[in-house]
Amino acid sequence: MCSNKLCRVSGTWETLSAAVVLVTALSISPQLARAQGAEVAAEFAVSELRPTIGHVMVAQAGNPAPGPIAAVNPAAKTSPPANAPAMTDAQSPASAAVMAATPPQSRSITERAIDKVKQVAKSASDIFNRVPCLPPKGVAKKNFISLPHVANKLASGLPVVIVAFGSSSTQGYGASTPDYNYPNRLAAQLRRQYPMADITVINAGVGGEDAPEMMKRLETSVIDRHPDLVIWQVGTNAVLRDLDPTETAKLVEDGVAKIQAAASDVVLVDLQYSPRVNERSENASRMNKLLGRIAELHHAGIFPRFEVMRDWHERQAIPMNEFVISDGLHMSDWGYACFAQLLGDDIIRSVGQVKLGINQPAEVLTYRPM
To answer: Which residue from 149, 165, 351 is spatially nearest to 263, judged by alpha carbons?
Structure first.
């Protein structure tokens, strides 16, 4: 028996204890996820997840916060002792501490949270094991020329700066975590290819923008960073707004000239193949042709994203909803990952064409678990 006051106090402490346990479990969830080989945000522990053949979809309320996300060389990791036995999740100090402090009535909540995070980590780590990222066949990557500024820096052992310039698909809307946006995936790939190089990839994508808005911040977001390479994704929002592709092309051409005058290589990325873009197929086709023409005239690179994504759907028979999220426009984790992989392969191949002390790379593989 207890007085009403004592019972209320006891009940309050039980509630607070359960809350502390849940918060503790969520706080170690990212560590457990990384132990499985993938860096997954802690919010996965409580998000409603829809596993698919190539990615994990997470409901999003809106665009992630804009701003640069720099992908820099990772810090060195401490290795375990040479003869240390393997430690399971259940044996780890963090897990043991949580389980020991968890009351029996709340332990099932902790276990469910940990299991969910481990499930997401596995899905993220084998993103290409389920659906390979294959190079398109019959898709002309015309005029993807060598990148002399990047090649010179790599040959000289100097730091390399790449700016990813664009709108929401550069910013990474639709990706389950910033680790899965294309600039961060690209940075990881290039660092594997050139392990001795100091490579930084800066995400200068802002959702909702197109050429008029981008030109206003070209100096501050791009040129002032003194990049060796600028990857400029542009044109989609202009088509969705029914703007004249010719006017957009004039702005892009002016921007390319300014970037090149600042001694930077340029690669243009055209529209995405997706339901909302395909609804405006005539303007989309005109925009893609104009971007290709700009690249040709200015000896810039071009990545034909539209044709690459169409190849996924029409030749490789990948369902549209596996590389485009439910809004019918933005790419999924798998879509961003494969886009970054193929773009990175093109950059590696182009750098290899410049004979400045860099050996021609061996055959570039486009199927790599990342």
So the answer is: 149
Alpha carbon 172 to chain centroid distance? 6
CB 189 within 8 A of CB 337: no
Q: Which of 350, 339, 308, 34 is nearest to 193 (CA)?
A: 350
Phi first, then psi: what are they for 142, rounded to 5°?
-65, 145
Using an 8 Å Cβ cutoff, are 95 and 114 in contact?
yes
Closest Cα to residue 119, out of 26, 43, 54, 56?
Answer: 56
Q: Could you give the CA distance from residue 237 to residue 244 in angstroms, rounded to a whole number? A: 11
Q: Are strands 265-269 and 301-303 parallel, antiparallel or unpaired?
A: parallel
Report the predicted TM-score, pTM, of the whole model to 2 decimal places: 0.64
* Cα 275 to Cα 278: distance, rounded to the nearest angstrom: 5
Q: Is the pLDDT of residue 51 over 50?
A: no
Indicate the pLDDT class of residue 349, thresholds 50, 70 and 90: confident
Per-residue pLDDT tens over the stretch 157-177: 789 999 999 999 999 999 999
Question: How far is it, in rounded angstroms, from Cα 181 to Cα 343?
Answer: 13
CB 162 within 8 A of CB 227: yes
The whole-angstrom separation of Cα 61 and Cα 64 is 9
Q: What is the DSSP letter of 324?
A: B
Closest listed residue to residue 367, CA positions, set 326, 337, 347: 337
- Dihedral sign computed on CA atoms, order 252, 253, 258, 262: positive
Q: Which three-class secondary structure state does DSSP give residue 124? A: helix
> DSSP letter at 160?
E
Nearest alpha carbon to residue 166 among 230, 224, 229, 228: 230
DSSP secondary structure code for residue 269 in this structure: E
49 bridge partner residues: 58
Backbone φ/ψ region at 317: left (φ over 0), alpha (ψ -120 to 50), beta:
left
CA 18-20-25 angle, 5° bins: 95
DSSP summary character for residue 27? H
Tokens 């029914």 found at: 242
DSSP letters, 79-120, are: PPPTTPPP--GGGSHHHHHHHHHS-HHHHHHHHHHHHHHHHH
